[in-house]
Amino acid sequence: MQPNRSIPAATVVPVLIYPDVRAAVDWLDAAFGFVERVRIGDGHRAQLKVGNGAVIVAAEHNDHHPPRPGETSHSIMVRIDDAHAHCEQARRHGARITTEPTDFPYGERQYTAEDLAGHHWTFTQTLEDIAPEEWGGTTVTTD
Questions:
Q1: Which residues contact 31 (CB under 8 A, 6 or more apart)?
Q2: CB under 8 Å to 86, separation ≥6 — which residues?
């Protein structure tokens, strides 16, 4: 894939709608540790990076709106190093923690949070490498 400094390098880049792009960028940085990489206009869009992934924060317009209260249309999963510390940072910045850090049989510790605009995020910490067949999954292809 040809590189382009004007777009995130990640293969999949969610675009999330927020009523206030600048407030969302500041909050995502403080609460979840994301880093702004490109700003487009004063409040139109921003590209953020997290690890080797990315997300685009876009302004609300026409038929593009953040989730309505009580509605979940998507969830974004982000890999992190320490679920407990990350969860406490998010909580300190007002994230609504919907699931506390929990260890799962597939080798992950995960927690779920709702951000200031109602987007749902799952943060996952790898505890150990476990074959999917050990917990009831099926390996279809290997990377």
A1: 89, 90, 92, 93, 94, 95, 115
A2: 32, 33, 80, 111, 123, 125
**pTM: predicted TM-score of the whole model, two decimal places:** 0.88
**What confidence tens digit (pLDDT) does each residue in 75-122 have?**
999 999 999 999 999 999 999 999 999 999 999 999 999 999 999 999
| Number of neighbouring beta carbons within 10 Å of residue 123 | 25
**How many Cβ atoms sit within 10 Å of the Cβ of residue 18?**
24
Confidence of residue 67 (pLDDT cuts 50, 70, 90): confident
Question: For every residue of 31-91, which 3-state class applies, written as one string?
Answer: HHCCEEEEEECCCCEEEEEECCEEEEEEECECCECCCCCCCCCCEEEEEECCHHHHHHHHH
The length of the chain in residues reads 143
- Whether 142 shows a pLDDT value over 80: the answer reads no
Domains and their CATH numbers in the chain = 15-60+75-134 (3.10.180.10)
> 5 Cβ partners below 8 Å, 6+ apart?
none
